[in-house]
Amino acid sequence: MRTGALAALRPLARRFAMFVAVIWAASTLNFFVPRLAPRNPIEEKLLAQQEMGGTTVDIQSLVRAYNAEFGLDRPLWRQYLTYINDLAHFDLGYSIADYPTRVAAVIGRAMPWTIGLLTTTTLLAFAIGSVLGALTVWSDAPRLFRAIVPLFMIFSAVPFYLIGLALIYVFANLLQWLPLGGGMGIRTMPTLTFAFALEIFKHSILPACSILIASVGVWALAMRGMMVTVVAEDFMTFAEALGLTSRRRFTQYALRNALLPQVTLLALSLGHVLSGSILVELVFGYPGVGQQLFRAIQNLDYFVIYGIVLVLVTAIALAMLVVDLVYPLLDPRLRRLGTAR
Amino acid sequence: MILRYLRRNPSLPLGLLLIGGLLAFSIAGRFVIGYDAAFPLSGPPSLPPDADFPFGTDADGRDLLAVLVYGTLLTLKIGVIAGLLGVAIGTCVAFVAAYHGGWVDVVVRILVDVLISIPALLVLVVIASAIHTSMSTTIMAVTIALLAWREPTRQIRAQVLVMREAPYVKLAVLNGAGAARIIFREMVPNLLPYLAASFVMAVAQAVLASIGLEALGLGAPAEPTLGMTIFWLMSESAFLLGLWWWIVAPITVLVLLFVGLFLITVGLDELANPRLRRDTA
After folding, report:
1. Which of B121, B126, B244 is the closest to A30 by Cβ?
2. Mind listing the pLDDT tens digit for each residue in B169-187?
3. For residues A126 and A262, is the Cβ–Cβ distance under 8 A?
4. Which residues have a Cβ under 8 Å from the Cβ of B250 and sit 6 or more positions away?
5. By the 8 A CB rule, do B125 and A294 touch?
6. What is the DSSP letter of B223?
7. How far apart are CA A242 and CA A247, in angstroms?
8. DSSP result, B87-139
9. DSSP alpha helices (H): ranges in chain B?
10. d(CA B201, CA B213)
11. How far is residue A53 from each of residues A49, A50, A93, A179, A255, measured CA to CA in Å?
12. Is A279 on the interface with B (CB under 8 A)?
């Protein structure tokens, strides 16, 4: 009994080790790549400020002072240990561009926008795509669905932001139905009113649609593949012999069985969706993490760049871990297998 | 017979046609217009399409026809270099791992699994922001190649593992063939369709990554690629200025490019893996 439980835990432990390895790899890369490059972010920042006439003091001594402050004058391995230690305490350091602000604060401000946009669009694309893909195989469904899927397949090859640019052009520029960009109006103050919620919603329609249009096809295609095998199963013939309605057979028998493997695809697609949505935020000036990343790159604000990269890698790894852990709970077949072994 | 096959697998010719058309446009365009015209102040700014500038000019006075002609090839250059490097590295690593087996294979598998869980764009942002000032399309291609070998490695390793057990390879081993002979005479020819498919996919991924980096402001400012065009039209707010010709043409070219690469990949996949072939119904 005990050894059985331990054996069941082993894949879990391996999966968790993998999660730690991903984060360690990303953070180590984050630490060493910039230090291999022949540039000093602080010196660059101060020189840029001097060019703009900001300071007249001796730059070199200022650079030394800042280097000491950020600990850049110590040996590399000491810096690395401090860095890992800081990360373990969720300390991402300070933004160089607007110094007293902490990187964590910058990211924290932007994160809700990105998470909101990403989770809604991913779940919607998952639901719409799966049902659409299933309907293309279902013989009672209108033939129209069979024509839609190749169209969405083509869309899935086009990056989100190109669809976004096209949507802005048509709906914001030509028709002027929806705002050009941003998360809310420039003069709007956040309040807990219906009007404010409506405004947030209006600003999110186009960014969300550009992600949706491009990702529905991926789900539909995968679902179609699963559905083909499910429809041929014996229990489908049995359900028909029982005289169940087409609708009931579709939702209760076919869809439920084909849907589960889609969940694993969800974990795999997250990274792709995230990279795409970073650029969508850019196109729309949506105030999420992607927009912050762009600003940090423009300002050469390296600590913010590394902070954002690390937080996003961690978030994706965490989401993949959760999906992998939850999946066996969703699928009764796997649950039984796990205990039998 | 080839014709009948192509009718059943229309993705491949359609994709080749799209990419071929873009290449033809880009190569023929070189005889019509000079590289200089793709740079600022080669024409009056923000000019709508007319007889002299059939695609108009952007807000900096680049002739958009020249930008599209030279940009398409520059962007494809990044994709092809990164794709070639990625598939070459990937194939070597995959063969070493799958053929050697043991701890080498375990290390490669774990490495690929870990790296594949990290979104490439994020890592590329870190690398590209470190070499920012000296960026060029060639450096961009090599940078992207640093991560472009992950998927090819995974796909080809799986194929080699399957092939190693195939009867014809076993037979070659019994005949006393050496490793080199088995790899190059028995395995590689059978891998070619897979190699081609993963190459085209790697090209598409690399183009996607390069445009992402360029849109984030990490591109090569002195080379008018399609991605830089996207960066310029966003940073100089072409939408607010209402310069539709600046927006529509590059988007169209990029969409054709991505759809073309996608169709070729789908077609090659079907060629390599007959089980994927759709029933004619």
Report:
1. B126
2. 888 888 887 778 888 888 8
3. yes
4. B64, B67, B68, B71, B226, B229, B230, B233
5. no
6. S
7. 14
8. HHHHHHHHHHHHHH-HHHHHHHHHHHHHHHTS-HHHHHHHHHHHSGGG--HHH
9. 2-8, 11-32, 64-100, 102-116, 120-130, 137-148, 150-164, 167-174, 179-181, 188-215, 226-235, 238-241, 244-272
10. 18
11. 6, 5, 27, 38, 66
12. yes
User: What is the rounded end-to-end Cα distance, in angstroms, of chain A?
Assistant: 10
Whole-number Å distance between alpha carbons of B166 and B223: 48
Q: Quote the CA–CA distance of B196 and B264 in Å, as a whole number.
A: 10
- Does A283 contact B234 at a Cβ distance shorter than 8 Å? yes
Which residue type occupies A149? V
Phi, psi of B226, rounded to the nearest 5 degrees: -65, -35
Residue B269's alpha-carbon distances to B155, B274, B275, in angstroms, are 12, 8, 10
Note the pLDDT tens digit of each residue in A2-19.
Answer: 556 666 677 788 888 888
Q: Which of B188, B181, B185, B121 is nearest to B148 (CA)?
A: B121
Shortest distance between the Cα of B174 and any Cα of chain A, in A, equals 38
**Pick from B208, B217, B240: CB nearest A297:** B217
Q: Which residues of B touch A275 (CB under 8 A)?
A: 119-122, 212
What is this model's ipTM?
Answer: 0.80
Q: Per-residue pLDDT averaged across B132-160, rounded?
A: 86
Q: Looking up tokens 């190649």, which residue turns up?
A: B145
CB contact under 8 A, B234 and A173: no
Q: How confident is the model at residue A250 (pLDDT cuts 50, 70, 90)?
A: confident
State whether the Cα torsion B163-B168-B172-B173 is positive or negative: positive
Cβ–Cβ < 8 Å for B115, A25: yes
Q: Are A280 and A207 in contact (CB under 8 A)?
A: yes
Cβ of residue B230 closer than 8 Å to a chain A Cβ = yes
Answer whether B123 sits within 8 Å of A26, measured CB to CB: yes
Write the residue in B113, B119, B218 that is nearest to A316 by C-beta: B119
Give me B279's structure tokens: 């029933």
pLDDT in tens, A87-119: 777 777 777 666 677 778 888 888 888 888 888
- Which phi and psi (to 5°) does residue B63 adopt? -75, 115
Q: Measure the CA–CA gap between B102 and B55, rounded to whole angstroms.
A: 58
Please judge whether B114 and A21 are an interchain contact, meaning their C-beta atoms are less than 8 angstroms apart: yes
With an 8 Å Cβ cutoff, are B130 and A37 in contact?
Answer: yes
The C-alpha atoms of residue A134 and residue A254 are separated, in whole angstroms, by 8
Please state the pTM of the whole predicted model. 0.83
Structure tokens at B166: 């195939």
Amino acid at A12: L
For residue A157, list chain B residues with Cβ-Cβ distance below 8 A. Answer: 204, 258-259, 261-263
Token output for A134:
């299933």
Closest by Cα among B260, B258, B254 to B68: B254
Residues 99-158 of A with CB under 8 A from B: 154, 156-158
- Whether residues A283 and B242 touch (CB distance < 8 A) is answered with no
